[in-house]
Amino acid sequence: MPDLNILRQLASDVGMDTALRLLGIFKDDAEKRVAVIGDYLQNGGNVNDLRIQAHSLKGLCLTYGSPAGGEAARALQDACDSGNDGDIRSKAETAFAIIPDEIIAIILAAQTLKGE
């Protein structure tokens, strides 16, 4: 569930049209980073690279109003730091399941706010 207060503040700070453009950039960037998680789940890979993507997603999600996405990314980052393969995989699956839906919800919420 998007944090509407963050989206309202963003719109107040930069204007709704600019906020929507920034959210488009957020969407593109976050989707690329989520794709790295998906690739890790399919093919394995470098845990440090996965950690970097999780860290970036954490910041993106929290900045643009997705506390659930930010928490999923934080949990994945922490799992990468711990080095437990089973935990990394579990947290990657969770982030991969949650964050794309959160991205869509944020964009839809912002578009709804534009109509207010």
Concise description?
With 116 residues, the chain is mainly α. It has helices at residues 4-14, 16-43, 47-63, 67-82, 85-114. Helix 3 runs antiparallel to helix 4 (67-82) and helix 4 packs antiparallel against helix 5 (85-114).
Q: How would you describe the overall organization of this protein?
A:
By secondary structure, this protein is mainly α. It has helices at residues 4-14, 16-43, 47-63, 67-82, 85-114. Helix 2 packs antiparallel against helix 3, helix 2 (16-43) packs antiparallel against helix 5 (85-114) and helix 3 packs antiparallel against helix 4 (67-82). The two termini are 18 Å apart.
How many helical elements? 5
**Number of DSSP strand runs:** 0
Strand percentage: under 5%
Number of domains: 1
Structural class, by secondary structure, is mainly alpha
- Report the order of strands and helices: HHHHH
List keywords for this structure.
mainly alpha, elongated, 0% strand, 116 residues, Four Helix Bundle (Hemerythrin (Met), subunit A)
What is the fold's blueprint, element by element?
Layout: H1 4-14, H2 16-43, H3 47-63, H4 67-82, H5 85-114
